[in-house]
Amino acid sequence: MEFTGRHWSELLRRALEDVEPYAAAALYPHAPAVHREWLSPRLFGARRDRLLLASAGFVAPAVLARLAGIAGADGMVGLRLARNPAAPAASLVALWRGADSGRLRLLLARHAQMPRAILAEIAEGAGQVEILRALCENAGAAPDVLAALERRQLPALQRLLAINLATGADTLLALWTAAGEAAVRAQVLLHPHCPAPLLRAMPGSVLERRCLAQQARVPVALLRQLAGDGDASVRQAAAAHAAMPAQALLTLCFDPDGGVRRALAGRADLSARMAGWLLEDQDAWVRRTVARNAACPPGLLALAAGDAQAEVRRAAARHPACPAALLARLAADPASWVQAGVAYRDDLAPPLLRRLARSTDVDVLAGVARNPATSPARLARLAAHESPDVRRAVILNRMAPRDVLLPLRQDGYALHRAMVLEHPNLTDLDRWRMRGDPDAQVRFRIFGHFARQAGMRAAARSGARTRATQQALLTTMETI
User: Can you tell me which residues the record assigns to a coiled coil (predicted)?
Assistant: First the structure.
């Protein structure tokens, strides 16, 4: 389908008549100036629509910027824009300049898109603790602004400053010196910019030691000590640390706390020796974690495949290198949940996939429906299944052919219709025929798809004209 001016005109007409403003919002960023003026009354004329758009994080910044410019004295529109993570920086600045409520100022001070210069201005002039706390929570604040906030010596700000990833090492050191709470010091130890001198001594509280055990730069000598800590939560954090020495890991395999052993079971560098021990662990979650871990040698999976717990057997079926013989065994498991774990694999032999396709269990059939090797005829039957989970799995199958997908454009679930229009095997003509979908969000996606195409074509034409003009100018100059 070649998108033409006639198609664009129909989109404009439909957007202006639509009961919701979202279709017009999809067209607005890609529309020429004259068409933007046509769309503006539909978008911004009614307060209900302004409120809907101000809360919508999926609409383009151009819509939100225009909305901020005309919001005027409507405080509720301003509040919704200030909560919207997609609100553009210029709109936030305009709202801040005209803000007359404490709640609006609080939201703007916390907004991640607020420019650093404005955050510095807010920090300099703010006296309310609530505003200062919002600034401390803002990851977009510059380190020097956070340092200035620390110099106010307000206990209510200390932990928030220690959490903020933008806080610099000097500020963290000042917080460590001034803090009277273990919670603040623990956050300083956990921070990626934690000053090196603070990582050389064992802290006193459990909370601090647990955070130290999660610090990527903790010295190995301290890490060994943390592996033997008297608190299980500290040992669990240490067991997951990438730099933990191998000998300490072997000892932790027999830790009395199941959480510690679970942390070990999920390590990417799990050795075959440790995997063998942990597959015989009394904790089913430990065995399950090992069986799913790609580091577990395939030769050990037979033990997991015979486990009394179905979750462990399913984990073995999901192991990326599970042997074919074990997969055939697990495909006949008495628990459908285990069979489903096999069905979701992309490397199944065709006979095994056909056997699983004869199941009546929804989870198994969903795995079959998502499998790229499932035949088109089978997918067509699954696309008509009564379970939405099975139909959704067909849509997620990147190999599903067009004729299987076409009926799903009328699926009873709006989510499915929104998903199917993104499928690469549909044509633009198929998507165009969905332009009258009853759901506003689906229409927004469809209108947005074609509006982007119109915008790219307009940009290409403009670029071609510019290049032609430049070439003509060069020719003239050469003639002269």
Answer: none
